[in-house]
Write a structure and sequence with these properties.
The complex is a heterodimer of chains A (112) and B (112). Chain A is mostly beta strands and 112 residues long. Chain A has no helices and eleven strands. Chain B has strands at 4-6, 11-14, 19-25, 32-38, 44-49, 55-57, 60-65, 70-75, 84-94, 97-102, 106-111. In chain B, a hairpin with a 2-residue loop joins strand 9 and strand 10 (97-102). The chains are: A mainly beta (112), B mainly beta (112).
């Protein structure tokens, strides 16, 4: 099993460009999450999903959109990238809320 | 008061020593508690869940103090491989908004 995978691993964008980060999990987990991690700020929840076709806002959702069309995939979109979105993005999944979250390897995004 | 407070360190500890960290949380409704480990430029991975009665996993002991609202992690006979950042996480289901809140992490370096 691959666990949680993320593509791409690295990306550099110019301000105003758009992109989509893809997260895939092969553990048949219902819950999936997108976090960003910045120095001194810890992991902050952007959006999450409790099942196929559902999404919900987390702590820092502005500037991001998500979709969960298939149970195994959770997409994070940046419509118009800003330098403040320079960060490391982690996707995670879990069987349910009370269980371990499994993280992907992360995407390092730089917005110039 | 911040939702989660964690001493960022760094803790520089000689090999073989015992080291302990605490992590305080402000939401008394928190229902689940975890310690995650994150190596440099890697994703977080679950180290251990924290149960009400306390729990041990080899050299690692986790405790929960609900009255004072903190969890602790004790590492005995520390190894070089224990060098990492340790993140605490707390879960709550506030009005259906299920989420984990992570601390900013405590950096531990084990010195030969």
């Amino acid at each position: 099993n691959a666990g949680v995978t993320q593509t791409p691993k690295f990306r550099v964008l110019k301000t105003g460009q758009s992109m989509t980060l893809l997260c895939a999990q092969d553990m048949n987990h219902e819950y999936m999450y997108w976090y960003r991690q910045d120095p001194g700020m810890g992991l902050r929840l952007i959006h999450y999903s409790v099942g196929e076709g559902t999404t919900a806002k987390g702590e820092v959702p502005d500037g991001y959109n998500v979709s969960r069309l298939k149970k195994q995939n959770f997409l994070l979109g940046l419509e118009s990238a800003a330098p403040s979105q320079t960060s490391v993005y982690f996707c995670a999944s879990s069987r349910d809320f009370y269980n371990e979250q499994f993280f992907g390897p992360g995407t390092r995004l730089t917005v110039l | 008061r911040k939702e989660v407070e964690q001493d960022p360190g760094p803790f520089n500890v000689p090999e073989g020593a015992t080291v302990a960290f605490n992590c305080t949380y402000s939401n008394s409704a928190s229902q689940s508690f975890f310690w995650y480990r994150q190596d440099c430029r890697k994703e977080p991975k679950l180290l251990m869940s924290v149960y009400s009665s306390g729990n041990e996993d080899g050299r690692f002991t986790a405790q929960l103090n609900r009255a004072s609202q903190y969890i602790s992690l004790l590492i005995r006979d520390s190894k070089l491989s224990d060098s990492a950042t340790y993140l605490c996480a707390f879960g709550d289901t506030n009005f259906g908004n299920e989420k984990l809140t992570f601390g900013t992490g405590t950096r531990l370096t084990i010195i030969p």
